[in-house]
Design goal:
Length: 503
């Protein structure tokens, strides 16, 4: 069989006989099938999206259902854009926008998210850098890229999932490493691309968000090679831009659905915030930043801080009229619409949620445009100005009324302590010479893989390999497996066989 003509379909490892046979259905469709067949994709069913399904007592989105919906939105965007000759011609010049590519990338984009959602990501990054001495730390997007290129084994002849260059490039929301690729590093741009800047308290630690660890940088270069000369080294491919936008849309809509079902979002509190800002926006806009900070939880103050933040970070698109219109549209649809009646689990209530989701999804997908010269904090594919502001307001609602809740913080502090203790217990186990032969086989294999990736002259090579293996191992657990493993390691579990050692 001849190799695919599209240079973006080249695979890093050439492909096994089965892999080449898969290309009969199209290389990008084969990639999608490989991703959904991976145990790492199935694992996402047990990983928190925002709130734990076990903690809520109700059916809420997990990382698997979130990924499926991102894929659905991403494909709808790609099909709409490629059906329009004006958009299609521009996208071809920029490297293409294949619906199969964006769907596959969307399905794979969260493979590396660890137990307990974004909390787990922050905790593992801190432990990786401060406890385990890994300069790259941990990042969910980089971990996803590592899984499809390095740690998921597909047959004896390949490492990773052996995906095409286009799909791997489309997974790269942040096509740079934490510290040194590309050169000059995008965190030094002014303004820096979204996610590229370092944390305010430690800018020298590298980018907050990044798409690949240093160990996968050669793969990143190879995946991006077909786009050289078309787009800047730090810019997303059009397909990555579609996937990233779809992720934002799904996050804004479907998390609001979850919080409504669980009963966390209450009409009164959301209405008070939005309507107070509408009544007092003139006064709130005029007061100083320090006065606004002292306003604390006064209704209207938080959303005024959002308005100022958008101007500060995204002045290229932030607009006061569009922001006010977005607040009004969200108030009408959410406060006077979805939240007007408490969710009672009835068929009618589910239909109401479905209609809410469908209206917003259609509104956002229909507003997608392509630009030949995006702002440094944007991509080639982006939402219209009005809808961009609406996404920001929807995301504000769940940040303000869910993520800031003390009861959620209590739950998450326990999860953070669990991960701290689990990493420490695994580190002590790895250092015990009498237990080397009884390590979990997966952990043993990951140590060998990490050691082989490092240059022989790497300082503390063995220690870094063990640290990276522990991070890889813990990141591949579900929420339940992390709890079960710590119970076993601490002696709290009375069961000899648990699902803690599945991976």
């Amino acid at each position: 069989m001849e190799a695919p003509a599209d240079p973006r379909a080249r695979r890093l490892f050439g492909g096994s006989a089965r892999a080449l046979g898969d290309l009969a259905a199209g290389p990008f469709r084969a990639d999608r099938d490989r991703i959904v067949s991976s145990p790492f994709f199935a694992r996402l069913n047990g990983v928190t999206q925002v709130i734990s399904p076990g903690g809520s007592g109700l059916l809420v989105h997990n990382r698997l259902t979130h990924s499926l919906k991102v894929a659905q939105v991403a494909r709808a965007i790609a099909e709409r854009l490629t059906a329009d000759p004006a958009h299609r011609d521009l996208l071809e010049k920029l490297g293409g926008c294949d619906p199969d590519v964006v769907e596959a990338a969307a399905l794979a984009h969260d493979l590396g998210h660890p137990p307990f959602g974004h909390l787990g990501e922050r905790v593992l990054d801190r432990l990786a850098r401060q406890r385990l001495g890994l300069p790259d730390g941990f990042e969910g997007n980089a971990q996803s890229y590592r899984i499809v290129t390095s740690t998921e084994i597909r047959g004896a002849a390949t490492t990773g999932l052996d995906l095409t260059a286009a799909v791997r490039a489309a997974m790269l929301k942040y096509p740079w490493t934490r510290l040194d690729h590309p050169d000059p590093h995008p965190r030094h741009l002014d303004p820096a691309p979204r996610g590229a800047a370092g944390p305010p308290d430690d800018p020298e630690s590298g980018s907050v968000k990044f798409g690949a660890y240093r160990t996968e940088v050669d793969d990143l270069r190879q995946a991006r090679e077909p786009f050289a000369g078309r787009i800047p080294d730090w810019q997303q491919t059009p397909e990555a831009s579609v996937m990233d936008t779809a992720d934002d849309i799904a996050y804004a809509i479907h998390d609001v659905e979850d919080f409504y079902r669980v009963g966390v979002l209450q009409q009164g509190t959301v209405a008070a915030e939005l309507m107070a800002w509408q009544r007092e926006s003139g006064h709130l806009r005029s007061i100083t930043a320090s006065a606004l900070d002292t306003a604390g939880r006064r209704p209207g103050a938080a959303i005024e801080r959002l308005r100022r933040q958008l101007h500060r970070k995204d002045g290229w698109i932030a607009d006061d009229d569009a922001f006010a219109a977005a607040v009004e549209h969200v108030r009408e649809e959410l406060v006077e619409g979805l939240l007007a009646l408490p969710f009672d689990g009835s068929i009618e209530a589910e239909q109401y949620v479905a209609r809410f989701s469908a209206r917003w999804s259609t509104r956002f997908v229909d507003a997608i445009t392509v630009t030949p010269e995006p702002h440094v904090r944007s991509g080639y594919v982006l939402l219209g100005k009005a809808q961009w502001h609406e996404v920001q307001v929807l995301k504000f609602v769940h940040h303000r009324f869910v993520l800031a809740r003390p009861d959620l913080a209590l739950h998450q502090r326990g999860q953070a302590r669990l991960l701290d203790t689990l990493v420490e217990a695994l580190w002590e186990w790895l250092l015990d010479p009498e237990e080397e032969s009884r390590l979990p086989r997966r952990l043993h294999d990951l140590v060998e893989l990490a050691e082989a990736e490092l240059h022989p002259r790497t300082p503390d090579r063995i220690g870094r390999a063990r640290g990276r293996a522990i991070v890889d191992f813990v990141a591949q657990l579900t929420d339940g497996q992390a709890v079960a493993m710590l119970d076993a390691l601490s002696g709290r579990s009375g069961a000899l066989w648990t699902d803690a050692f599945v991976l």
